[in-house]
Amino acid sequence: MTCLENESLGNMISSSRHQTRRSYTVLPCFILVEMVIMAGTVMLAYYFEYTDTFTVNVQGFFCYEGSYRKPYPGPEDSSAVPPALLYALAAGVPVLVIIIGETAVFCLQLATRDFENQEKTILTGDCCYINPLVRRTIRFLGIYAFGLFATDIFVNAGQVVTGNLAPHFLALCKPNYTALGCQQFTQFISGVHACTGNPDLIMRARKTFPSKEAALSVYAATYLTVVCVVNNFRGRQPEHENSHMENLAQMPMISIPRVESPLEKNHITAFAEVT
Description:
Elements: H1 3-18, E1 20-22, H2 26-50, E2 61-62, H3 83-112, E3 121-124, E4 128-130, H4 132-162, H5 169-173, H6 177-180, E5 188-189, H7 199-205, H8 212-232, H9 239-250, H10 262-274
Parallel strand pairs: 1-3
Antiparallel strand pairs: 2-5, 3-4
């Protein structure tokens, strides 16, 4: 083995050591802290979405109120963009973009040997290595999933607290105005049992603000924008700047002799004569 091969092998070993960092807290923190918080968030979103644990605020209405007498547009599944399709796009598109983007960045760094801007490989214990691609992908996907469920929780909480009625609420409520004694338009009805329609449809008509579809779509678009901005505009110091600073640091200090000005000499002489 020649000296050149020995030198290249030593450089590879030193670079691999430089790109590896030992940590004993990554896996325990991920399992005991992050997974517990994520599980609690998912469970809270489930209770908001599929159970009646949190009671919706019952908002009243006036007799024959025109704001809530719009015709019923039909079930949401028959709309042009069903909620299931919108939820799938809000959850699936960012996941695909993150996975493809992180894989492309990692392969590009390997191809260009840009190891200085690449994150280090984490060594947990004595045997387990966490690749930077896996760590960054799990990090971005975990943050996105947590934010997605948190957004769903805040939206459901807002709907439960406000109980804002849909414009077609009376078409689903089907109140019996005669039994309610609606003799004037100014009579206010606030009873829970004022409606005679389908209870499930009435409950959905009471939970319209804020809009869940709009909130999840805005969150997905905002998160993708932030991730792209962070990946594209991360502060990186170019190599020529690093070499320039190193050259400046290695330059010897040059002492320049002081040149005395004739005007300064005359001024000092005149000042001595005066004193």
